[in-house]
C-alpha cells in the first residue's frame, strides 16, 4: 500500500494534453484514486472560473490549489481554505509598468478579467493556444486599466503577456528596481506570472495539507514547468512529466510519460495507488 495520500497535478502541460483536454485514461485513473479514498488536487496557475468545466467532467475533484498558490479552495463546501492577495497599491504599480511594454493584462481572481482589444489579438502575445478558453471564461473590459484604477481590489494573481522575451525581461527589471513585494515566474514563451511575496504552489500545497491533516511528506506533486518547481520541492515525492523542462526533471525523484501519453495516469497508478 502506498505511503502517499494526496497527489497534486499541474494542469497545462501535465494533466491536460496538447489539445487542452483530460484524456479518458487520466480521468479513469483520477476517479479510481478518489474511489480508494485518495485526494487528487488540481495545482494550477489558472483561477477558479477556468476550472469549472473540468470539475463537471470529474465531479469528485474537491480541492484546488489555484492561481499559483494564492487560493486554496474547497469546491464541495464552497469554502476558502487559504488565500493571499497582491495589495492594491502594488497592483496599480504593476499595471503602470505593464503599459510601458504594451503587455496584455490578465487579472485572475474570483473572475478572469482582460482587456477587450487585447483578448481579440491574444495570438500576438504567444497565448493563442488559450484563445478558446479565454473566450469562454474571461470578463472583457474595453479599458481594463481605467476600470481597475476606478474600482481597485486586492488580486490573487496577475499575468502579463508580452510580445517577446526581451519585453518580459524589461518588465521584470522594472519590478525588481522598485522592489515590489511580488513573486515572479516566467511562463509560456513570454508571459510573466505575479503573486504576492511568499505565494507559490508549494505554499498552497503546504496550507492544504495542514488543513486536511495530511503530512506534506505524504503528498506527490506532478509538473512540467518553472511554476511547478516550488510544489515539487515541497511534496514528499516530485514527479516530472516526460515533456517537462530540464530544470523540472533535475529536481524530481521520478519521470513519467508526457502529457499526450497519460503521464499523470502513470504517476497515479505507480506512486499513489502502487
Describe it for me?
- The strands form 2 sheets. An 8-stranded mixed sheet has the order 5-4-3-2-1-12-13-14, with helices on both faces. A 6-stranded mixed sheet has the order 8-7-6-9-11-10.
- The protein has 2 domains: 152 residues, 3-Layer(aba) Sandwich (Rossmann fold), CATH 3.40.50.1000; 109 residues, 2-Layer Sandwich (Hypothetical Protein, Haloacid Dehalogenase-like Hydrolase, Chain: A, domain 2).
- Helix 1 runs parallel beside helix 11.
- Helix content is 35%, strand content 23%.
- Strand 6 and strand 7 form a beta hairpin.
- The chain is built from 11 helices and 14 strands.
- It has 274 residues and is α/β, with parallel strands linked by helices.
- The longest helix has 13 residues.
- 47% of the residues are buried.
CATH architecture of the largest domain: 3-Layer(aba) Sandwich
Strand order of the largest sheet: 5-4-3-2-1-12-13-14
| Fraction of residues in helix | 25-40%
Order of helices and strands: EHEHEEEHEEHHEHEHEEHEHEHEH
Core attributes:
Rossmann fold; Hypothetical Protein, Haloacid Dehalogenase-like Hydrolase, Chain: A, domain 2; 8-stranded mixed sheet; 11 helices; globular
